[in-house]
Amino acid sequence: MSCCEPSAPEGATSAVIGRMQFAGDGMCYDQRPLTFKAGECCLPSGPSDPKWAAAYPGLRDLLLEVDALSTIDTDCCALPNPFKSKADLDEKWMPKVNAHLATHGLVAQLHAFWSYNGQSSQPMMHMLVYKLGPEAEAERARLAKISQENVSKGTKGAPQQVAMARHG
Predict the structure, then answer these.
(1) pTM for the whole structure
(2) Is the pLDDT of residue 122 over 60?
(3) Exposure check for the chain: N or C terminus, fewer CB within 10 A?
(4) CA 159, CA 144: separation in Å to the nearest integer?
């Protein structure tokens, strides 16, 4: 963890096992559709854990939802705004992502920040992925099941997972 990254989410037992970057199409990854990517030129290599390999196929459809919840600044350069996008993604998208990841013993959080290379800076956002501990994994899997049942009943969204019981 760098000095600027957030603490791991509650229940995570590992350091970051990988990250994906908020990016779109085009040479500079700044054109729609926006999503989270890894492994391409100048992007993070992405998670490499076996749990991630099992979780990723089910995450693909959720990654397609990112663009609709993302903000493009209209006042300067028409570039994606990670800070504004993070707010909507945290509220409307991350509960679904974490419900899915929990079924594989993982949890994620978004981190928006400024990157500076000594000459220029740019806003960025990463999705940080962690492993869950056994107790947290069981609780999040329970919440994921509730979420999936709600979706099958036509309820939109996923339960907020902030009320997860503290284990200690």
Answers:
(1) 0.76
(2) yes
(3) C
(4) 8
